[in-house]
């Protein structure tokens, strides 16, 4: 009779251990889903902040009251000196081709 009782206890403990493993797995999956959702929300918040910064910058650019004025006098402009080409001298001597054995 002792063998029957001990067999029954082992079966109960195996079922209990399986339930614990299943519970831990479910908790891990819930935690993973929550972490992914938090990461998604953080990325969305960063994108929203970036878009808002672009909108404010664009609004600031359109609010300029006066365009930038540049006074250029074409008569005062001077031409740069032309580039002089160096005279071609005798070409450098080309060394003879070297023969070598790749397999050596």
Tell me the layout of helices and strands.
Elements: H1 2-62
Short recap of the structure:
The protein has 104 residues and is mainly alpha-helical. It has one helix and no strands.
Can you walk through the features of this model?
The chain is mainly alpha-helical. It is flat, with a radius of gyration of 41 Å.
Keywords:
104 residues; mainly alpha; 0% strand
Instruction: Name the shape in a single word.
Output: flat
Structural class of the secondary elements?
A: mainly alpha
Q: Largest sheet, described in full?
A: none
Topology pattern, helix = H, strand = E: H
Give the helix tally.
Answer: 1
């Amino acid at each position: 009779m002792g063998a029957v009782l001990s067999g029954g206890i082992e079966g109960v403990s195996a079922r209990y251990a399986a339930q614990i493993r299943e519970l831990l797995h479910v908790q891990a999956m819930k935690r993973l889903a929550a972490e992914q959702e938090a990461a998604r929300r953080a990325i969305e918040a960063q994108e929203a902040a970036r878009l808002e910064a672009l909108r404010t910058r664009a609004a600031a650019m359109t609010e300029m009251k006066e365009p930038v004025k540049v006074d250029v006098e074409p008569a005062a402009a001077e031409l740069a000196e032309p580039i002089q080409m160096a005279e071609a001298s005798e070409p450098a001597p080309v060394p003879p081709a070297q023969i070598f054995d790749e397999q050596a």
